[in-house]
User: Which sequence fits this backbone?
């Protein structure tokens, strides 16, 4: 699979229907109500399913119950794959707070320095583990989408390794890095928009965020399908 073509296709994908992009953005806006957050995840999962099935249009916002259930499944899979990195990062933050409290209470710089070193190592380890688990999480999600939302498909590790081999480890890593770069670019845009009152925030939540997630879901679907083309 040509990663450049894949990324280009995914970048153009949301523009097929800006109305649906904005509807997704509205769900993002009210995601603090919890249920809309699951609906967002469910809709993006539907985009992934449709992309794997070869459909080029954005899905409709219908069958809300199914979308909600799919969103909850995505949350469960995400929690499973990222709980270990989260614990490691939490421990690094906890260690830093503990060292600051020790320094404040005793004035002894020796213990905090040691703890800070440990914290830095744990934080770096957490980031590395999160990156590695993130790769497998993407394939787990795509495999679940391929099996029409079957939760168990996200935990068939041998099958997932076969999927990765079919895609190609190099292509997968290049794709992963490309998605990070795209996220950074849009993050820079977002950092500029937040300084524009009202309009900037509206564009950020209603357009930029949903656009980024739609691009990601579409790109993942195309990447996953490329594994079948390589067989």
Assistant:
């Amino acid at each position: 699979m040509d990663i450049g073509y894949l990324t280009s296709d995914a970048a153009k994908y949301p523009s097929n229907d800006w109305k649906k992009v904005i509807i997704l953005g509205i769900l993002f806006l009210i995601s603090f109500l919890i249920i809309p957050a699951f609906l967002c995840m469910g809709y993006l999962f539907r985009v992934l399913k449709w992309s794997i099935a070869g459909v080029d249009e954005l899905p409709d916002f219908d069958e809300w119950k199914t979308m909600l259930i799919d969103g909850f499944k995505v949350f469960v899979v995400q929690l499973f794959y990222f709980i270990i990195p989260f614990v490691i990062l939490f421990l690094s933050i906890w260690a830093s707070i503990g060292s600051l409290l020790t320094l404040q209470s005793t004035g002894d710089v020796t213990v905090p320095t040691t703890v800070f070193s440990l914290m830095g190592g744990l934080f770096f380890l957490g980031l590395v583990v999160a990156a590695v688990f993130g790769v497998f999480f993407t394939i787990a999600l795509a495999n679940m989408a391929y099996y029409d939302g079957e939760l168990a498909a996200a935990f068939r590790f041998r099958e997932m390794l076969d999927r990765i081999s079919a895609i190609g480890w190099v292509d997968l890593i290049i794709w992963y890095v490309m998605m990070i770069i795209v996220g950074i670019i849009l993050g820079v845009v977002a950092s500029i928009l937040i300084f524009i009152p009202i309009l900037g925030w509206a564009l950020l939540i209603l357009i930029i965020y949903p656009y980024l997630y739609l691009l990601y879901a579409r790109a993942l679907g195309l990447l996953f399908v490329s594994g079948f083309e390589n067989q």
The mean pLDDT is 85.
